[in-house]
Hints:
Blueprint: H1 2-11, H2 15-46, H3 61-96, H4 104-123, H5 142-146, H6 150-179, H7 192-223, H8 243-276, H9 283-296, H10 312-340, H11 349-368, H12 374-380, H13 384-413, H14 419-445, H15 461-491, H16 526-532, H17 534-546, H18 560-591, H19 611-640, H20 642-649, H21 658-682, H22 686-717, H23 726-757, H24 767-791, H25 802-805
Helix pairs in contact: 2-3, 2-4, 2-15, 3-4, 3-6, 3-8, 3-13, 4-6, 4-16, 6-7, 6-17, 6-19, 7-8, 7-9, 7-19, 8-10, 8-11, 8-13, 9-10, 11-13, 11-14, 13-14, 14-15, 16-18, 17-18, 19-20, 19-23, 19-24, 21-22, 21-24, 22-23, 23-24
Amino acid sequence: xxxxxxxxxxxxxxxxxxxxxxxxxxxxxxxxxxxxxxxxxxxxxxxxxxxxxxxxxxxxxxxxxxxxxxxxxxxxxxxxxxxxxxxxxxxxxxxxxxxxxxxxxxxxxxxxxxxxxxxxxxxxxxxxxxxxxxxxxxxxxxxxxxxxxxxxxxxxxxxxxxxxxxxxxxxxxxxxxxxxxxxxxxxxxxxxxxxxxxxxxxxxxxxxxxxxxxxxxxxxxxxxxxxxxxxxxxxxxxxxxxxxxxxxxxxxxxxxxxxxxxxxxxxxxxxxxxxxxxxxxxxxxxxxxxxxxxxxxxxxxxxxxxxxxxxxxxxxxxxxxxxxxxxxxxxxxxxxxxxxxxxxxxxxxxxxxxxxxxxxxxxxxxxxxxxxxxxxxxxxxxxxxxxxxxxxxxxxxxxxxxxxxxxxxxxxxxxxxxxxxxxxxxxxxxxxxxxxxxxxxxxxxxxxxxxxxxxxxxxxxxxxxxxxxxxxxxxxxxxxxxxxxxxxxxxxxxxxxxxxxxxxxxxxxxxxxxxxxxxxxxxxxxxxxxxxxxxxxxxxxxxxxxxxxxxxxxxxxxxxxxxxxxxxxxxxxxxxxxxxxxxxxxxxxxxxxxxxxxxxxxxxxxxxxxxxxxxxxxxxxxxxxxxxxxxxxxxxxxxxxxxxxxxxxxxxxxxxxxxxxxxxxxxxxxxxxxxxxxxxxxxxxxxxxxxxxxxxxxxxxxxxxxxxxxxxxxxxxxxxxxxxxxxxxxxxxxxxxxxxxxxxxxxxxxxxxxxxxxxxxxxxxxxxxxxxxxxxxxxxxxxxxxxxxxxxxxxxxxxxxxxxxx
Length: 806
């Protein structure tokens, strides 16, 4: 029976069970990241002021910085991200009356991709002897030139894999909330948690691709001789700017905070209402404030860089935007407090965690208001004050999630948690967190720098001792909390009504809304197999990169043959999933008149686009952000490195050749044949559809073949190699990325043709054909931007910065 349950969870596509898997993995990462924090505080507490960390015998300097790096990365990208997505899997479908998430198999794949991401990121710890940890912000040139450890590459690959997982989750939640919500639930009456998850998901789709692009750029710097983020003293025309990474990272980093805090706010709103016994005051304002926070969060990233950006106009603009983002957050806090006023509050453990969330969030928010004040920020930058502010916010997120998990625990497990243990863990977490983070704020005001392995002077040492005591209280609180969950799972008092254990339905705030229709949960091993195969895929890519002669990672037994075999293994699993799932289902639908075994057509609310087409729209949005990040980086380099870019142009050949023009005409022309193919298909003329698709794919193949087999060798023969100049680095990286997407588009067309051939897509069910067409138009449209930037020289036509006129 136990083995059957294990297999059930390994093959499930049920959002509730996947949510439990997410929560379990997040708890594992919480324990590991908490252990890193414990070791950080221990090292600083036992190291005498001004001494070297090696003198204590506990850790080396390299190992200490790996503790710091992995604590920050794991807490944010592993524990917190997985926890909020897990809670969303458990609660959102039930709160909006959906039978499941929109794409159950993709939801399962998203979770299983988090497992390799977790293994890769923690794997960096095993290479500490090769170099220090890069810090959780992974700033170059430290991460690209000075840290030779393979652990940095593992972290970067973990970021890429985890980013793909989270992007897929974001698209899935957007589609679930907008298209599977029960028709009688209007948007403004929708659960506040669902609103917060919707805002979070939009942020995930828009903010995670830039970080993935930055991680790829760092891998190119580390292994292929590129220098996007580091100057090149021997050849200035081939050097980059380390501040570019700061722009990319914080364009992701500040929305990332709201990716985590928004669902925590939504959970707090749900628990607060039910424990106060009334609907939230200003319900609509709380809902819309989530969208406002998500929108403004993209306009504040430079406030993390006031010491790196000297332009006062830029500083003032971002200072104003940073102050503005506090307004919708203040709306939430005001309405939460107004909801509590005059309410008959049940001070059970979930409510205690919720109230502490509000208190910690207020402290974190108030201390954050100091940073938009530029003169104050210049003093506080890179001090413990920043740590105290940030930890108050992140700890508030943790308390909100832990409180909500206690609230939903009876619903998830069918058993009650132990109230006394829950209150004790709450007390330890509250006192320990308050002590630790207040001492951080105090030490920061006095000037204590962050990232130090020891107190520089005796002035700060007492504060570090108190921080360490507080961290021990936090550790004890987390341990007691987890013991409570585990003990209650086996010994807790059974719940009488698992669907509504708190009696929330009596208040008009039910925890479960009956879905308008049922959807069978399919069991398939392929999401788990393909997701886990991302681990050998990542290791295979690193094998190939580390075997390059330009790689800065030395002493690693890298083998390109082994690397390509690992990549092939992933491709084989992907093709096997396609055959087992879509291909076999297509054959079943063909031979059973469209009613395949185990396949049930799911009715969905009316929409302008169909199932796959609306999904493709969000995929295209995410891909567009990815391209715009890299292209805008080229324009940034042109402005910031104006002299170096001009020097690089002296070595660049004329890119606007007859071949480039012919390639472009062929690619853009293929958009018109793609339209003709789709029209022929929807009109029922399958023969003409095949003809037009053949023409589309032929022109796409001509473009890709000409680019990779003719244009590239010609340019390289003229000395225009990828690492020659900053101009050539951006040209080859952006054009190659686009060419890769052309190949993806051709593969997409080939799969669509196969499924049309066996009757999966038909003139009455043309979603796949239309989705492929939209993706192809996107690829062609991006080439307009790429062609204008490099071949027509738009990036070269930018006038010099005002500073050069002075």
